[in-house]
Recover the amino acids of this structure.
């Protein structure tokens, strides 16, 4: 899987390799916003949706596209919370990087 969304990569950056979520997206209730499929088939979660290399995004292996995680959540209240947590993480990470650059390359 490789992201093809340059704008998203510039805005949110890449997810750190360490600290990847343990559970697959489907087990956490995420669903591709474009594909029409059952989340569970014969007792197994559909695995087409994976964690993207982009912060706050999910990758659909069928669509070959990254989607913002909140778009992949059918529960709108949970989607709003996920959106805000993604924004918070990106802001904190970028702030940390700016501090590091000032201290080390200043």
């Amino acid at each position: 899987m490789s992201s093809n969304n340059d704008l998203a990569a510039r805005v949110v950056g890449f997810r750190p390799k360490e600290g990847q979520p343990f559970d697959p997206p489907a087990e956490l209730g995420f669903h591709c916003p474009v594909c029409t499929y059952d989340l569970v088939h014969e007792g197994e979660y559909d695995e087409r949706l994976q964690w993207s290399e982009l912060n706050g995004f999910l990758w659909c292996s069928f669509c070959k596209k990254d989607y913002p995680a909140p778009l992949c959540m059918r529960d709108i209240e949970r989607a709003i919370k996920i959106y805000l947590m993604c924004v918070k993480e990106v802001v904190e990470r970028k702030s940390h990087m700016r501090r590091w650059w000032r201290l080390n390359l200043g």
